[in-house]
Amino acid sequence: MIETILTGKTPDIGEENIKKLMTMFPEVVTEGKVDFEKLRQVLGEYVDDSNERYNFTWNGKGRALRLSQTPSLGTLRPCKEESKNWDTTQNLYIEGDNLEVLKLLQKSYYGKIKMIYIDPPYNTGKDFVYRDDFHDSLENYKRITGQVDGNGKAISTNPETSGRYHTDWLNMMYPRLRLARNLLSDDGAIFISIDDNEVHNLRKICDEVFGEDNFLATITVNKASQIATENTVDMHEYVLIYLKNVESFKLGENYKFTISRGTVGNENQTTPKILFPKGLNCYNIEDGVYKTTRKVENSKENIINFGDIVVKDGKLAQDVILQARWRSSNDMRNFFNNNCQPTESKINGEIVEIYFENDRFVPQIKKRVREKFETLYSTNKRGSKYLENINLNYFEHPKDVLFIKYLIARGAYRDSIILDFFSGSATTAHAVMQLNAEDGGNRKFIMVQLPEPTDEKSEAYKAGYKNICEIGKERIRRAGEKIKEEYKDKGNIENLDIGFKVFKLDTSNIRKWQPDYDNLEQSLMDYVDNFVEGRTEFDVVYEIMLKYGLDLTYPVDEFTIAQKKVYSIGFGMLMICLADEITTDVAKGILVKIKELSPESSRVVFKDNGFKSDSNKTNIKEILKSGGIEEFITI
């Protein structure tokens, strides 16, 4: 049995990178340090020693990089009262600075996100800009939500007169994109909306973070409303698409059927003979015996038949060999060899049927293909109409639900997790629910949004919405109910997930995970009571789940064992007891409950100062070990 002392830190990304380097080049790491001279020797000609090499840099880039690698000591506190369908939903809505939230999600959702969509600030000089503090992100977050900096100065704009117009924006985006990449699955993709102000810089930092080879496309999107200047009419913005791994990426499960003729006019194409088996459909062809096929003077697509072509009851009555310049002879043969069942084609999609359609007997190939991204999206509509329909129109430029659905349908599978960490009005959540209702999918969403206060003079504030998150959550509630009503006659709509669990960023619930370094004596005394004042065991349970890397949507059940409360996560895969005066009876009761729940493996967590005595702790550990518990964890 493994014994673990759980700390409050998220994964140290720098340390993780060192481990990866050790795996690839063990000789360059000694005592946890990288010998760069040896690494240069190992890499040989792949090291660029030139002072004048291509690179993209700006003031603060190094600090921004370090910021993305600095572990977080914060947590996400569950907020059941603001959630919807807490016990059953698989969706999350997280309030907090997305930099800290992305760090906190690293362990639970590393490599699990199929699609990320973000609509970050476009840096027009009017957007809210995240001012990251390189020393204490959580304290900085508290200042941001108050809309003032440490000196009480407003920080809601990024005017060009600041002298750091592009630099501030790059320092905001760079660490977030690095953390976001970790969350993507190998076949995942990120979609980023942007306009002309920063599209050039965004391409450069994405090339660095995701790799130039993983750039898929730029979609030019027609704006719902045009903006005229003295010299131009601004009609477009963009979506950049980058992949985690270009070789692993697959389009979503949004299909269409295409039909193409089986011959081509390419003079260099070979002309193999192919046996067309009996039973193929012959549409619009009368029953009978046909002596010839397509014969057009000087055509490169003529077909030679070896033997009669017999049609009976609308089908080919016997095998026939045909010769021509075929579009894809191997695909056709593979389909026939597969008994004319759906067969993967070489280039795109699967062949579902090959048939003849007229008495010239040119074969037609019907494919089912995944819908691709088009680099021009010209049907963009006004996103505010969706908010008007639910009486919640408090955003100036919300995205069009149809457009986000378009991206999700092509970028994610029907059971994927979709993350949006600049959630805004929660259009992405709306689109996920709408698409699930339409195609029966089970996509899940994670929305992350800074609770930026609304202007006290705004209609939103007057309506009772004190920050953006309150509007976003209400949109999901209303949109979900509206979608269910609209699709009530569709089968299985009752199972549509229109709920969400709310979590809010905060400092750790556990005192020793956030010591006061200016008053260590008091911090040591505080250890007598493990939890921060005002925090509940429920808060602590979810912090343990987060720091241990468990999905935040796993079910949490409560039991009483030997007069002590015990929490079971994921039907026994993790058992947590945060009580004091823990006895061996608790350990024995936990083993009984685990046997009843029958998880594949189980771990148990206790407070380090919750045992009645040291000997009691040792006995409990031995009881659990003999019961097959995989890991004994203390906090």
UniProtKB/TrEMBL annotation:
Q: Does the keyword Iron-sulfur apply?
A: no
Keyword vocabulary terms for this entry: Methyltransferase, Restriction system, S-adenosyl-L-methionine, Transferase
- At the top level, the lineage of the source is Bacteria
For this protein, the record's Pfam families field holds: N6_N4_Mtase (PF01555)
Q: Which GO terms describe its molecular function?
A: DNA binding; N-methyltransferase activity
Give the DNA methylase N-4/N-6 domain ranges.
113-445
What is one GO biological process annotated to this record?
A: methylation
Q: Does the keyword Methyltransferase apply?
A: yes
Report the sequence similarity comment from the record.
Belongs to the N(4)/N(6)-methyltransferase family.
Q: What is this protein called?
A: Site-specific DNA-methyltransferase
The species is Thermoanaerobacterium thermosaccharolyticum (Clostridium thermosaccharolyticum)
